[in-house]
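User: quick one - fold this with manganese (II) ion bound?
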Amino acid sequence: MKKISIIGVPMDLGQTRRGVDMGPSAMRYAGVFERLERLHYDIEDLGDISIGRAERSDDEGLRLNLRNLKAVAEANERLAKAVDDVIKRGRFPLVLGGDHSIAIGTLAGVAKHYKNLGVIWYDAHGDLNTAETSPSGNIHGMPLAASLGLGHPALTNIGGYSPKVKPENIVLIGVRALDEGEKRLIREKGIKIYTMHEVDRLGMTTVMEETIAYLKGRTDGVHLSLDLDGLDPHDAPGVGTPVIGGLTYQESHLAMEMLAEAQLITSAEFVEVNPILDERNKTASVAVGLMGSLFGEKLV
Ligand SMILES: NC(=[NH2+])NCCC[C@H](N)C(=O)O
Ligand SMILES: [Mn+2]
Ligand SMILES: [Mn+2]
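Assistant: Sure. Structure tokens for the protein plus manganese (II) ion:
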């Protein structure tokens, strides 16, 4: 039986919209623990990682185009340790965000346990910026690049090693907003990507069949990093960087169900839920529903 450990990461320093630090609370309130308990998992909630404060004057971060670099890096070190611990105890880490900068710490904790970790990046964005290419200086737009070993050492060396993941072990799904530097990187590294164009043409069934077949052959574990803004803002309005034309609620449940069937996923995180921007906790509830499907919930 799978043993699941929930880790909350109330991080909002990787971007500028307040409120995403309440994401873990919102998902707990939406019943994540009870939902998975009903599926007969051995489940524990480890509470939240402590997040420092933004420095009063973040001169260094602003100079580097890496907002709140120090506080983001420190929190990610703590998260990496917590995730590492959970895996050492033979349990499945389920990380609740927080903005997407926390994927740096999650992956740092996960990747050392695998020779060839696969990553499914379910997101409207590529999150493949570095300080050099970022239009915003927001670290939540950089975690996948950092995990590839690209960017500032304070981010790439979390957990004391780099890189965490190889470009050929990554699959991006749902992408519809990329900055120029990110496009270049995807081409250069040959990263596998299903933009909304491919999802619309092929359908989610084929996208997931191909993704699963691709990763099964080449990886020994797969991390799911699910940014709620991968979904259309109609279905997930409570996110800081919404992009229209996204994945539907139905497509997303299908994707999770197919992953459950394939028994591919060995760690997961759900990020960017912002209750202040949400409508009656809708986005947190959608996130928890997706977790239900990922962990094998069935209608009959
Ligand atoms: N995890 C996210 N929601 N990332 C959004 C990133 C947006 C933009 N590409 C940036 O670098 O600022
Ligand atoms: Mn995103
Ligand atoms: Mn993201």
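One thing worth noting: The chain has a mean pLDDT of 97.
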